[in-house]
Design brief:
Helix content: 10-25%
Strand order of the largest sheet: 13-14-17-16-15-20
Oligomer: single chain
Strand content: 25-35%
Number of helices: 5
Order of helices and strands: HHEEHEEEEEEEHEEEEEHEEEEEEE
Shape: globular
Number of strands: 21
């Protein structure tokens, strides 16, 4: 007769499996953990995308400056380098570089023409002013061995030192500041079947249904300047989609409305949209101005990061954003175009990957 000892009991206990309740509980815990990870992944991917865009954006902005400086610009007076050309433009009696030091956009020519689509016009003469084609403002370029561009850049110009009542050749009167905005191409951009993306962006001979903007915006009555985020040129019936340009807006310092009036140099209030999108709803413009990652440039050439919207209940009024760094001490604001005051900033409907400001002194 074989006696069962404690060892046999232990072996029988070890052979015992999990109950159905225990398995279901383990599956529930695993599912909750996976759900948590699933919610975390988009944030990680978004953070990685922003970091990659910022790195590429700096390189693209440096490349944009090199493109501008390296061109030969043909004018009625002959071929000029970038510095020489801007010096001529600065001394000219033209609206290209007005006396109030405000920014003038290199407005893309969105007509279909032999120079391509959305060419950047450097000047105020649509016939004689030199242009930078859209294909030359993509990054990487078509000949870089990549299947599609990641970024596109645009530029604006302003007279660094406003003209006085004396000679136009006074010291500094022909110095020009250039602001470059680099943006990621629309995230939902897809080329039509059988057409490479580079061609869809650059080939003006394609139909409107086949063409794409790298950054597209709507010009419908209710959505002026609203990014489409899909690069379309031809929209739904009744919509007009155009190249999404740099957006100049008028701003002023925000002040506390109750008690002593204290000016907040880290707060700017949007008062009006200028340029192509001037009919845009102010509330929507404010939302675009306060979106994460937004950067703006004032009419002194200072670059600010927008930290977010200021709550309306804070006592400084609506349409106010917080910026960093604060506006330098001694700077006042106005909306009458006084060149000694801050009254205008530039922004893009899509938050930029990088912003670069440099000065040209012929």
């Amino acid at each position: 007769m074989r006696l069962q000892g404690n060892g046999d009991k232990a072996m029988k206990g070890a052979a015992r499996g999990f109950t159905l309740v225990e398995i279901l509980f383990a599956v529930l815990v695993l599912a909750i953990a996976l759900l948590g990870l699933g919610a975390f992944f988009p944030t990680v991917i978004r953070t990685q995308q922003v970091a990659q865009d910022a790195t590429l954006g700096v390189v693209a902005a440096q490349s944009a400056e090199a493109v501008l400086r390296g061109r030969v610009y043909r004018t009625p007076t002959g071929a000029l380098g970038f510095e020489e050309y801007l010096g001529v433009a600065a001394r000219a009696q033209s609206s290209f570089l007005p006396d109030d030091s405000s920014w003038v956009l290199g407005v893309p020519d969105t007509d279909i023409g032999p120079d391509g689509t959305a060419a950047l016009i450097i000047g105020n003469d649509p016939i004689l002013s030199p242009r930078i084609s859209l294909g030359d403002r993509l990054y990487p370029l078509d000949d870089a061995g990549v299947s599609e561009p990641k970024l596109v850049w645009d530029a604006a110009f302003r007279r660094l030192v406003p003209r006085g009542t004396g000679t136009l050749d006074a010291a500094g009167s022909d110095a020009v500041q250039v602001a470059i905005f680099v943006r990621r191409v629309d995230p939902r951009l897809r080329a039509p079947q059988g057409v490479p993306i580079f061609r869809a962006i650059q080939d003006a001979s394609l139909t409107a249904a086949q063409r794409r903007w790298p950054v597209s915006a709507s010009l419908t009555a209710g959505s002026l300047g609203e990014p489409s985020l899909d690069g379309r040129v031809a929209g739904e019936e009744g919509t007009n989609l155009v190249y999404s340009q740099i957006m100049p807006v008028e701003v002023e310092f925000a002040e506390y409305q109750a008690g002593p009036r204290v000016v907040r140099r880290d707060l700017l209030r949007l008062t009006r949209v200028q340029g192509t999108f001037q009919g845009m709803n102010l509330k929507r413009a404010f939302e675009l101005m306060s979106q994460p990652g937004q950067q703006i440039v004032d009419n002194f050439g200072n670059i600010y990061s927008v930290l977010g919207p200021e709550p309306e209940g804070s006592g400084v009024g609506a349409n106010t954003v917080r910026i960093s760094p604060p506006v330098p001490e001694g700077v006042r604001t106005t909306v009458n175009g006084n060149p000694a005051t801050l009254y205008q900033v530039l922004m893009t409907p899509q938050a930029p990957a990088a912003v670069r400001v440099f000065t040209v002194k012929p």
